[in-house]
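Module 6 notes. Inverse folding takes a fixed backbone as the condition and produces residue identities as the prediction. Think of it as a translation problem where the source language is geometry and the target language is the twenty amino acids. Below is one complete input and output pair. Work through it position by position during the lab.
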């Protein structure tokens, strides 16, 4: 990993101030950013599911298939929920890997 010359002194200063090694500072910063992104995705997921009465993605699919909920735009929402779940899984893996290295 290459850090810009102008950023390195600032990172060193921050590390000294909070008594943290620069590598740990960087990995903890990345981990914090990933956790924040996870929280945003979880909120997006909850907001989307709240349109249908706070049911699960599987329940939404079942209700679409049974005709209880109209297919459009519900199927698009299911696809969006699947994309959110996929991204959450990726972020979980990244967070787990970062946690193993620190």
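Target side of the pair, the amino acids:
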């Amino acid at each position: 990993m290459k850090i810009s010359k102008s950023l390195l002194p600032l990172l060193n200063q921050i590390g000294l101030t909070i008594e943290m090694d620069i590598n740990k500072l960087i990995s903890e910063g990345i981990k914090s950013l990933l956790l924040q992104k996870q929280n945003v995705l979880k909120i997006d997921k909850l907001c989307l599911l709240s349109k249908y009465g706070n049911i699960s993605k599987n329940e939404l699919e079942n209700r679409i298939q049974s005709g209880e909920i109209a297919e459009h735009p519900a199927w698009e929402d299911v696809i969006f929920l699947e994309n959110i779940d996929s991204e959450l899984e990726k972020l979980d893996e990244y967070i787990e890997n970062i946690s193993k290295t620190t």
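Reference fact for the lab report: The two ends are 16 Å apart (CA to CA).
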